[in-house]
Amino acid sequence: MSVAYLIHDQSKIYYITLTIVGWLNVFSRNSQKIMILESLKYCQENKGLEIFAYCIMSNHIHLIVRANGKHSLSDIIRDFKKFTSTSIISFISEGRESRKETFLHKFKEEGQKQARSQKYKVWQRGYHAIELSSNKFLDQRIDYIHNNPVNEMLVSRPEDYLFSSARNYAGLDSFLNVIVTKGRWKTY
């Protein structure tokens, strides 16, 4: 069971980790990562999600985010998880995934464990949210996020990983626009 870290002040910047149940490698396919990026973009454009950094790994997502006041950050993350769960199940169920039976079995098993039984559970309960209260802490979390693909030996430089805001920070084209903050905490 995961530990729930609460968002106490909805207007602050938070480091958030969202993890797939059983650490299943659901995002090993680029099409799944692109679906996540499109969902994040929707949240930016329609729900007021401000993204400062992100990285989509094979079984988890790291975000540094804030809500601009349209919706609470808790509500945005809840809706994001709900929508992407449905999209992931749909993608897998339609047979475009070679590990279909394994994934659906685990998601179903996890769904049945819930107090309110549900057909499938894709994301671990809650999410790891830590308020970032200093420039130093923000920079540390950005570096940690951006170095995830390097540490997993997917790329040799953070900016070479297509599914990370390291590209934004390096001035390269990226799937998502982010607020580049490194070294400029006081202006946000």
Quick structural summary:
This protein is α+β, with helices and mostly antiparallel strands. Helices cover 39% and strands 14% of the residues.
What does this structure look like?
This protein has 188 residues and is an alpha+beta fold. It is 39% helix and 14% strand. It has five helices and four strands, in the order E-H-E-E-H-H-E-H-H. The chain has helices spanning 30-47, 73-93, 100-112, 135-151, 166-169, and strands spanning 14-19, 49-56, 60-67, 128-131. Strands 2-3-1-4 form a four-stranded antiparallel β-sheet, sandwiched between helices. Strand 2 and strand 3 (60-67) form a beta hairpin. Helix 1 runs antiparallel to helix 2 (73-93). The chain is globular.
Keywords:
single chain, 14% strand, four-stranded antiparallel beta sheet, globular, 188 residues, alpha+beta
Shape: globular
Gyration radius, rounded: 16 Å
Number of helical segments?
5
Structural class: alpha+beta
**Termini Cα gap:** 35 Å
Sheet with the most strands: spatial strand order: 2-3-1-4
What is the string of helix and strand elements? Answer: EHEEHHEHH
Low-pLDDT parts are none
Helix content: 25-40%
Major sheet size, sense and barrel closure: 4 strands, antiparallel
